[in-house]
Amino acid sequence: MSVPAAPAPPNASPNGSPDTSDAEIAEARAATATTRRPTVPAMEDILFQRLPVLDHGFVRVVDYMGDDAAVVQAARVSYGRGTKQVSQDAGLIRYLMRHWHTTPFEMCEIKLHVKLPIFVARQWIRHRTANVNEYSARYSIMDREFYLPEPDQVAAQSSANRQGRGDGFQPDEAAQVIDLLRQDAERCYADYLWLLNEDEGEAPDADAAGADRPGLARELARMNLTLNTYTQWYWKTDLHNLMHFLRLRADPHAQYEIRVYAEVIADILQRWVPITAEAFRDYRLEAEQISRTGLDVIRRMLAGEAVDQKASGMSAREWRELMAVLGRPA
Amino acid sequence: MSVPAAPAPPNASPNGSPDTSDAEIAEARAATATTRRPTVPAMEDILFQRLPVLDHGFVRVVDYMGDDAAVVQAARVSYGRGTKQVSQDAGLIRYLMRHWHTTPFEMCEIKLHVKLPIFVARQWIRHRTANVNEYSARYSIMDREFYLPEPDQVAAQSSANRQGRGDGFQPDEAAQVIDLLRQDAERCYADYLWLLNEDEGEAPDADAAGADRPGLARELARMNLTLNTYTQWYWKTDLHNLMHFLRLRADPHAQYEIRVYAEVIADILQRWVPITAEAFRDYRLEAEQISRTGLDVIRRMLAGEAVDQKASGMSAREWRELMAVLGRPA
Amino acid sequence: MSVPAAPAPPNASPNGSPDTSDAEIAEARAATATTRRPTVPAMEDILFQRLPVLDHGFVRVVDYMGDDAAVVQAARVSYGRGTKQVSQDAGLIRYLMRHWHTTPFEMCEIKLHVKLPIFVARQWIRHRTANVNEYSARYSIMDREFYLPEPDQVAAQSSANRQGRGDGFQPDEAAQVIDLLRQDAERCYADYLWLLNEDEGEAPDADAAGADRPGLARELARMNLTLNTYTQWYWKTDLHNLMHFLRLRADPHAQYEIRVYAEVIADILQRWVPITAEAFRDYRLEAEQISRTGLDVIRRMLAGEAVDQKASGMSAREWRELMAVLGRPA
Amino acid sequence: MSVPAAPAPPNASPNGSPDTSDAEIAEARAATATTRRPTVPAMEDILFQRLPVLDHGFVRVVDYMGDDAAVVQAARVSYGRGTKQVSQDAGLIRYLMRHWHTTPFEMCEIKLHVKLPIFVARQWIRHRTANVNEYSARYSIMDREFYLPEPDQVAAQSSANRQGRGDGFQPDEAAQVIDLLRQDAERCYADYLWLLNEDEGEAPDADAAGADRPGLARELARMNLTLNTYTQWYWKTDLHNLMHFLRLRADPHAQYEIRVYAEVIADILQRWVPITAEAFRDYRLEAEQISRTGLDVIRRMLAGEAVDQKASGMSAREWRELMAVLGRPA
Questions:
Q1: Which of B144, C8, C239, D262 pairs with C288 at a CA distance of 20 to 30 A?
Q2: What pTM value is reported for the model?
Q3: Minimal Cβ distance to D131: which of A29, A135, A238
Q4: Number of Cβ within a 10 Å radius of residue B305
Q5: DSSP class of residue C137?
Q6: C211 pLDDT exceeds 60?
Q7: What is the ipTM of this complex?
Q8: Contact: A328, C283; criterion CB under 8 Å
Q9: Which residues contact C41 (CB under 8 A, 6 or more apart)?
Q10: Nearest residue in chain A measured CA to CA from B146
Q11: Is B289–D287 a contact, with Cβ atoms under 8 angstroms apart?
């Protein structure tokens, strides 16, 4: 996990929020102050920088509060004198993670600026325990930016997993898909501008006289945009809920287009709270919940019994999932 | 405020959730049981029925918990012996509302099934204190239904209110707008079906051979839909948060397309908890927050002073807003 | 798991909330209505009845919304046409539980009336995703009821577990502890009444003339009560958060005095949503989270390797915990 | 509103959380770092210092995120290009406050360390939208510190306000109350230590041999403490919810013992976000919600009508409240 600290490519968008031009980011990064608060140099290194995601998206760390030591400090408030003997911070953090003591992790907070396609934003917003300020298409005009998948991401509906994608497309099929997505998005966006009367040049038909037409209310015109149009928001959450987000969205079953955001945020987590990030990997991300029946199967196997699906009491699907976890043939 | 109890028009959609065909609704309504729980006959009358909103949307009450008496009952737990003398339920409910004692209102709960355009859903979901199950376009195919405004709702961007709509369009201009919205939505939907390979008939260009093409993953194809496509969800919230939703969304400044949902829900509120609904109107919906300076202006006026904006210490905008509330010329 | 449906013993408390006398409960239970809402006969059987907990506490189901079928119904909204083949409700509920699809479980709601010692209430309230109306000692006078442990619950501080209890006390030691707790609680309560000037009889010293003294403000007098004094509240939460509560509080590591409440609520869960309750037991309560390292150990053992703690890469404590789960000697 | 920046008095408590001794605070304050994050010098001045409240309580700012400019920055993400003309930050913040646009205020966060009596903590915890780590009496031994009111705070139950206090006590009556509270708290605490077998010296009766007795489990012994015993916690919340807390708890109707905490936090607010704090005073703290009927009364009065209670359509109590707001005789 490593975060590219190098400057992101220039962002030519004229409509973006006021702090995302390269010049503004450089200016913000140049200003420093002295503080008594916990400070994480590896986070300061990337503060405000755009970490690119997908074709036009990004994640920027706008602010953070706390560090690994702040988790320990909060835990020690709870345990007070009783924890004198837990001498190592890492040990305490791993203990908290293992035993689902979640409140000390809520004592750290992070604020991100994210640019993302609307259909991804609609998944993301389902995580309710966060603060959000989204770019408003009632007030403002959306940028001419929409997500188009890379050819190797164009894939068929999975037959095994009703909500996922399966085999990739042939190059020419993929190109055809991408072309169609592009054409529809561009046409809808051009018509959006025409409805707003913001685009003097091209009327969709010859009779329309742009100059005199009233611009349609923005809150109405926006409905003509496609779901791959990019939006952006400030998103702020605590460390516990951030990890819950990562657990669901960095998972292989998550849709690729949100997973790549989760992966960039997982890199940020590693910079921010390295001890917590490692405990999170060991006890959450790469851990498994084994059911009552699954534990019974494991115990019988360890006792030397040759258990098969029939004898396990599990459904075929659960059995397959368990064998995959145990690295054994199903 | 009255809710049409008559059956809603038939819904021919083949893809909707399993309980929204007319036959299924009639079957669900025919099944009754005996209960000891608080029951509101006016809610039973409309239970499960589609209350139409916009061109294809609806609100259906799927379940409810509690009534006006349940608010009183919860308040009496708090106040116990101390409230012996507050003899009337209505008086207690009005007292709670006036003094922002919100927790007794959280003791009632409602569950709605709502069909709504995606751009409305994106506003709605910002109310985080609710439970939501939305139709998933990763699993399922979206219906061919999109919102198109009525001609009298097609209006220009407001010059006074940066997020609202102003003057209506001329009929021919409105018709042109609606046509454009329809064409883009229909083309995007047709291409969506083509991408899914669900529509054998019409390929977007002659070379495409539908039968052999793989269907694009649903989670990808959906990005081609426009934001006026209808989605649907189950939405469950408590009475306190329902009123907070109504306070923001039944407000004249709310966008028309969400306000009409709020108005139908306000009618449901009236059926469900009529005493609470009246107190809500008196102390929230039709009440006003008057600022420190505004109170000072009122006091001076009542004392006979001729206060104008200059003497008020208010900005021109605040002065206008205050005079509007007081029913006086600005 | 079975819930005693028999009537609870009479509650003579004169100060309780207005619906907990035996007569009021009987009256409430006698009133029935017809409803179209989902109804669970096994819940109706116990509705409003006090299910006793500890020496003076209870849990009463005051209302509920939804049932197992409501979970399925909400899930089908999400999955729509895509789930045609998941034919069985139980299979779908188990799938949701196994894969942490939590939102359908949020579509059911329950409202309980609970009487509990204040120190238990302080643990319980940490579950923030619930609605609460607590008896207010600012308004009302607290009952003369405090929790005293049974002799077999009087135990020493655990040496192994810094937050738990270890060996039981000898009978005479236990009796001494209980006597001391009783004396302090009774004296504090008597002085509380004296401060309120509610108890004309006994002044703490001979000079005090009860009749003429002003009663101390209730909000102040209450500070003299001990933490084992009973309070009561209405507590309302959704099924998902109820199970989260049970997972933490029905756990053997939870303090006995809250665990007994969790056990009564687990019985209620079984009555209310038996399919969900069984899935909850299999995939949560009696399941285990196995860490990345733990999975590695299991895989190596299954492959025939003789792994010991040293070779496992685990701390001694984690190794012990894993061996306990696997039913093997540490 | 001003915050004493001078060092707080020494805190001799041996059991407190690890960072509250004078030496530890001085050490933490001496360590500084360079940061690119928004920094508020007036907050740095008081960081980590104990701001005393009541007889043994305090509030310490442990960390903060954001400032007035961060509110503006988040609002500008929402409004983007559409807000070009709102040139002044103060104007925008006041606009947001006036029109209940609350999400930009959620973008700032504060973390406090608070020491407070348990009965105050029980009120405070009702604000659910916060993160909390409380000192655990299951793990640790509580300090010998309990709240005793100042003589001028000892007052009778109010006859007008069922939840408040009325006339003060005579000095000798007040002294008697305080003595009784002290005696009960001290006896309960001494018995608590005896139960824990932590106090070798004084057994409550001569027969008890301290050395050989087992110490009662801490989770049990704590129930013997009175509700004025001090506890402590880390409490973290966002600026919006902090103001909601202040609005309810800095109110004259709030109990004195929580109001003094709110007042210290209001001073911190003034240091942290002075523009927001002023807008909060003008549009929330010193503003009033005027009901539909109240607005009607004001309009009629301003039109020259002589309205009295009878003609107002208001209850006597509401009329009194309105006349008080308008500074007129009831």
A1: C239
A2: 0.92
A3: A238
A4: 10
A5: T
A6: no
A7: 0.90
A8: no
A9: none
A10: A223
A11: yes
